[in-house]
Amino acid sequence: MDELVARITAALGVEANTARTAVGHVLEFLRKEFPDGPVAELLAKIPGAQDAANAAAATAGQPSGGLGGLGGLMGAGIMGLAGKLNGLGLDMGQIQKLAKEILGHAEQVIGRENVEKIANAIPALRPFL
Question: What percent of the chain shows pLDDT beyond 70?
Fold first, then answer.
């Protein structure tokens, strides 16, 4: 997890704590949308990933502060995730970089074929491959 957080911190120009929280929200989103198979493997292979996703899950339903606080009301969908990330202070450009960095790291950890399976299950991720 530390390697991924360092990668996100550098790519987005944010503090490590913000990067860790953002990664946790994305991992929790992936876990909810596609709980088995490649996502489960990804969470198992990145030390601390499960904890980060659990921490994000613990904040579910809380207003994110982004999009007028709508992130917490929209649930676990892609718009809810965007609202949570926006609430961390990330703009759309940073959110796009975040997705690309996480998927790039995932490809190193579980392979391109498995990342494509995730993107096929969650079509909103396809543009970030």
Answer: 87
